[in-house]
Please model this.
Amino acid sequence: RRTIGETGRGQMIQFDPDEWKTFLFERFATVRSFMEGIVEKARRAGAAMTILGRRRPIPGLGARDYRVRSAAERVAQNTPMQGSGADIIKLAMLRVDRLLAQREFRAELLLTVHDELVLEVDADQADELSPLLVAEMEGAYQLEVPLVVALDGAFDGMVDLVVSTGTEFQTFLSLGRLPSGDAQFGHGKWQTADTG
Model:
């Protein structure tokens, strides 16, 4: 699995890497200390943890080789966000599966893609099911910031519903305990493709 650092994140949202670092660390002063704290905690424990307590060992954090150590640090920084996003989408998937079984909807959960669930739903049930899906996913895990879900559907007899959360971003805000004013990071120019 490939991880990206500040340079890759800046390129992903079409910013010069230096401009991205400057923006990130000046505009959101708590981000740098939060990210450094994650690495130090992982270095002490020899592993990074997700929000639900899954442990990912990271042996390269003490490496002398800069490239190996840097790669391990990126893994340590990404694991709490990406791994916690995976934890939350798994909980959401279980909730959605239970909803579909209890209410006997003519719907099938087809797959997950990062923070999205893709369902095929009988078109005459799509309007009834849509708000229930959103509620189940938004209630999958209580964070310090709201977990917001977006829904998109394509109608052609059967409906392919794509239900997306911003779990990585939401987890970052929750774990980082950024001031609420800093939540603007998830909007407009700064919003990445997977933030729903």
